[in-house]
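Structure, all two chains, one model.
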Amino acid sequence: MSACATTPQRNIGEKREPGAGRSLRANVRGRSWTEPTAYAALALLAAGETGAARKGLEWIRSAERPDGGWPPQIGIDESTWVTAVVALLPPADLGPAVHARAIAWLLATCGKESSFDYRLRQWLLGNSRPADQQFAGWPWVPGAAAWVGPTSLAILALEKESRRRPSPEIQKRIESGRRFLLARMCGEGGWNHGSSRAAGYESRPYPETTGMALAALRGVVGPKVDRALAVARGFLDECRSADALNWLRLGLLTHGRLPEGFCPPPRLAYRTLPEASLALLVGGGPRGREFFWG
Amino acid sequence: METKFTRREWLAAAGSAAMLAGCGKSVPMVPSTVSIVRAPAYDQRIYETMRRILEDHRVDVRGRTVVLKPNLVEFEPQSSINTHPILVHAAWEAFQAMGASSVRIGEGPGHRRNTLDLADAAGYFQIVPHFEDLFVDLNLDDVTRIRPSRQFSRLEKLYLPDTVLGADLLVSMPKMKTHHWTGATLAMKNLFGVVPSGVYGWPKNPLHWAGIEECIADLHAAFPRQFAIVDGIVGMEGDGPIQGVPKPVGVLVAGHDPVAVDATCCRIMQIDPYQIGYLRLASGEANSHMLEQNIRQTGENIADVATPFVLPATVAGVGLRRS
């Protein structure tokens, strides 16, 4: 697939408003955040802009916490899901030891409902384990439950690491994470944030998390994945969110189901740095997508 | 923010205090004013109605910074899930006209990460000129760790966005909705949207583990300078706050004390406010902020606009219905 004409060719490496068209202003005020910095560094590396990427990589290295994870923003004293985005960066660029610590942090982190303490407490209380809590996923924040977004990102990072350095421990977490995703699929197919039934009612899927989960289910086949792919294909035609379209495209590409020649709508607004960076990675050809798949 | 009271209000407060001292059940307090104003539709009349509400409440924002906090939840522009943008624009214009030094609009949705797309789908870009310049995605704002004046939850750390912490007045602008966990979601529950998902995630799950009702009370304590304007023109009943159905009530409910405003909304929805956990936590000793004798009602009478809301099945059996 060739790069689309509407892919944002913007100043990802510079922290300023990019001129004509819809702005990226939403993310260019205030202090730096780990997630947009990591996505921007990925996009710059994919574009061969190693000089510009270096500044971002230096910032990321400086933001690492003593436990080997990353906070969402410097000043927040906790490592969170953004560690998975950092772990998508190539070890050679991030630094092999730094990258290894990011992977170790991911392997040591799971949703609270999968922790030994929680399960023991539930067992002592005589509570049975719900079907959608059988498998360990990843939380946004340690000490909270696992959700679709952070689980998908962690699987992407671990899958990439697994291709570089196969390990049974990594494979086990990937498998568990994928089972978690399949268990959290909405009744009609696709995923929302991770609650397929809320207070007794079926919940609707979201385009962005459906794309993320499909990207994390690379190589997984079956009726559930087929149903999710059909939902994703439906979202692709109606969706007007750059973030959602990025993930939908990646998810469908992962399964070879993105329609040939598909391009986002011409007036699509890229409003944040992660949106613009992801669009460059997903829509910029095989090199960009290698940063997800290894 | 200074609130001035009339002699009549002081007399009413003294009367309430004397009456309650006798039964020993409540703490005397100056009644807070809550107005119920009819607003039949989302149309141009809202602008005048909003200006009148703020004048009646003598909201003094001259030279002050104001943050309007609507409730943006889902991409369903035809439903009654989000605060209507014309209401927010009317408030923005009114506060500007009253001399505020700055009026921003801020929200941090709890489920969807693409906040600006959500606002676009809800009609904010269309209705509010230069919306993108006025809006702050509170999920991605710079944050500061704070300690609320009173803490009810087990939350160990509370990071909040600098934009709202620095505001002289935070204006909660929720939709009048039922809620499948808390019973009702109004001005106080709307403050969940100031908790930054960039720190806590989508959803803001650490708050669930720490206790939803208690976290709502924490947030109430964290923002002492508030004003509340509840969008009850078309609310939501049934399985709110997302999957319920539209419920036309045709009112705006406003006031400086979010507890009193929410209690009044509950009474309009024919929900017993004393059964709402976060209201009990935040309403002070002996529920003084919720007591009808401590609320100076202006505008419409509750009885005249009362509209029973169908309760979510999850809470229908726990005595929420007000007789």
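The domain at 27-305 of chain B is CATH 3.40.50.11440 (Rossmann fold).
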